[in-house]
Amino acid sequence: MDNSAKKSAAGYAPGVRMLFTFIGGSGHLRPLLPFARAAQAAGHTIAVAGTGSLQDEIIAAGFAALPTSEPRPRAAESQLEPLSAPDPEREEHTMREAFAGRGARRHAEVVGRIARERKPDVIVRDEVDFGTAIAAETLGIPCATVMVLLAGGLIRPDVVAEPLDTLRAEYGLAPDPELATLQRDLLIMPAPPILRDPRYPLPGETFWCRPDGVAPEASGGGARPTVYFTLGTFDAHRELFDRILTGARDLPVNLVVTVSRRLDPASFGPQPGHIRIESFIPQEQILPSCDLVIAHGGSGTLIGSLAHGLPSLLMPLGADQPHNCRRCVELGTARELDPMTFTAQEAADAIMDMTIGSAGAAYRAAARRVRADIIALPGPEQAVALLERLP
To answer: What is the pLDDT of residue 249?
Structure first.
């Protein structure tokens, strides 16, 4: 495409071919979708490349779907990994071997092939899709990055530089020991600066924006608070659900629980009228009526909760969740439960304290301060204006 054809008196006209890519699960796809939707609404041509198992989700979102791996069958409950304590070394090993190692090698090849066939003007990758960054650099295609790790901490030179430099050498690229090329064109952070751990700062030119439209402030505060409990779409640890359900059984709260499609809601047996268990409910449907969110500390759930001004009771399990939890505890928007040791009674006490009890007002005030920072940010459509200028 002739880049000069995109220019107009107003700056840049619609017509940019954009390839969005991600590696991993829904937590890597969903942060991309607001920007893909905004770009599509602006008249650009959008395709999304990523995990084979999520092709239906991409299509349901309204985009051309391009698989970068074979779909994997959904694990039965008997095949799920047992609950284990958060282990920073384990998570860094996963980031190094799975994402910067095998995953980067696969995406450098597959996304490179897709890009040569489709000839995108711009590639927009999720933060941990390292292979796409290498493919884009090799092909000379501008590459923007959407951050998916809220507080930061997992992507560091000492964790991923070595396997990435090995792969870079195979593609004829110079070493990048400081990971500078991962931020080479445009860095988009769909969250306010306050949520970033100061130990892991982002470059000054980072574009900070809202993750989506302006979310309504949660309308909780009634005589019977509403509490939402989720471990996201991936984690399905029955023992955690059992402890929370037991703790909330006699509390004066309404509890809504989503157990993911990996567990059967009916398998938890009959529940009292104030407890509802579902496989999945879109966050935007449940959060506006909540008072408190109980979760694992995943970036998507956290930013969604805070966009509605909601505090969280967090039980981090792995990945970036301990980093996110620590930052939110520092900001006063969250309280932590040890997933390995907390009892049903401790969960009940925390729920009551953060909703009806004396601590609730302070947690809500802190969460609303972060919400104010979120809604003051520009929206995804303004990120699209920057993407238009990359070719």
So the answer is: 96
* DSSP label at residue 300: H
Same domain, 382 and 297: no
Q: Is residue 199 part of a domain?
A: no
| Per-residue pLDDT, 71 | 87
230: amino acid identity, one letter: T
Taking 50 as the pLDDT cut, the residues of the chain under it are: 1-13, 78
Distance CA 300, CA 320 (A): 11
Q: Are residues 253 and 353 in the same domain?
A: yes
- The range of the structural domain enclosing residue 351 comes to 226-375
Give the model's pLDDT for residue 6.
39
Could you write out the DSSP letters of every residue in 262-284? Answer: TS-GGGG----TTEEEES---HH
- Cα–Cα dist 112/117, whole Å: 9
| CB distance 275 to 248 below 8 Å | yes
Judge whether 107 lies within some domain.
yes
pTM for the model stands at 0.92
233 and 142 in one domain?
A: no
86 and 161 in a single domain? The answer is yes
Rounded Cα distance between 123 and 116, Å, is: 12
> What pLDDT does 9 receive?
30
Q: Of 335, 321, 320, which Cα lies nearest the Cα of 366?
A: 335
CA–CA separation, 4 vs 14, rounded Å? 12
Measure the CA–CA gap between 88 and 98, rounded to whole angstroms.
Answer: 15
Task: State the amino acid at position 234 in one-letter form.
Answer: F
Cα separations in angstroms, 73 against 52, 70, 107: 10, 10, 21
Closest CA to 30 of 57, 53, 68: 57
3-state secondary structure of 115: helix
Q: Which two tokens stand for residue 87?
A: 């282990």
Residues 167 and 273 in one domain: no
42 & 176 share domain: yes
CA–CA gap between residue 65 and residue 365 (Å, rounded): 41
The closest alpha carbon to 264, from 82, 77, 79, 83, belongs to: 77
Give the Cα separation of 362 and 360 in Å (integer): 6
| Residue 264 counted as domain residue | yes
